[in-house]
Amino acid sequence: MSSPIDYRRRGLLRASGITVLSASAVALLAGSERMALAQGGNAAGDVGILNTALALENEAISAYQLGATSGLLQKPVLEVAVLFQSHHKEHRDALIATIRKLGGTPVAAKSDAEVAKALNAAALKSQADVLRLAQRLERGAANAYIGVIPSFSDRTLAQVSARLAADETMHWTVLTEALKEPLSAKALSFGA
């Protein structure tokens, strides 16, 4: 069952009418300003896409905060949720730095209350509910980052996207195990 969040994350690459991030934006995201200068690119379009990614990372940070403060998570699961939130904060910080290097203004994060309403947090009644929400968000993020990989001829740039997707996939896998749900019986279950 697909959710609006999953769709929006898949749509990350199509944000602002642009198909993918330019090589220069991904190089900046990877921390390589020298490579970015060599690549050139569409800075305004890249800022739009990066701001979409930033909004989604901010949403993930808020979602983990909602889970952490819900009182529904048991200690070991709570510790993992806080760890995953820290990963999303690192993604957020990298996106903000890249947007600024491109001359853009990072989009402001929505309040936790706004995110709670958008995610229907009032319906979360158990640890499993919180984990399923996080699981759905992580799968959507993994699919969004996987979607950009084929657009790069430079292996270094494709690797940056793959590393981001790997973080999200690792989160999804851990959440799936915590829910005691089976992993996908079929190969190639992400990126479709």
Please give a handful of descriptors for the protein shown:
192 residues, mainly alpha, Ferritin, 8 helices, 0% strand, globular, disordered N terminus
Structural notes for this entry:
The protein is mainly alpha-helical and about 190 residues long. The chain has a single domain (about 5-180), classed as Ferritin, core subunit, four-helix bundle (Ferritin). Helices cover about 65% and strands about 0% of the residues. The protein contains eight helices and no strands. It has helices at about 5-10, 25-30, 35-40, 45-70, 75-100, 110-120, 125-150, 155-180. Helix 1 runs parallel beside helix 7 (about 125-150) and helix 4 (about 45-70) runs antiparallel to helix 5 (about 75-100). The radius of gyration is 17 Å and the shape is globular. It starts with a helix and ends in a 14-residue tail after the last helix. Mean pLDDT is about 80; it is low at about 1-20.
Task: Kindly report the name of the CATH homologous superfamily.
Answer: Ferritin, core subunit, four-helix bundle
Helix content: 55-70%
Q: Which descriptor suits the 3D outline? A: globular
Sheet with most strands: none
CATH topology: Ferritin
Contiguous uncertain segments of 5+ residues: 1-20
Number of helical segments with 4 or more residues: 8
| Average pLDDT score | 78
The end-to-end span amounts to 14 Å
Task: Give the number of domains.
Answer: 1
CATH architecture, please? Up-down Bundle
Our Rg estimate from Cα atoms comes to 17 Å
Tell me what portion of residues adopts beta-strand conformation.
Answer: under 5%
What structural class do helix, strand and pairing data support?
mainly alpha
Instruction: Tell me the series of helices and strands, N- to C-terminal.
Output: HHHHHHHH
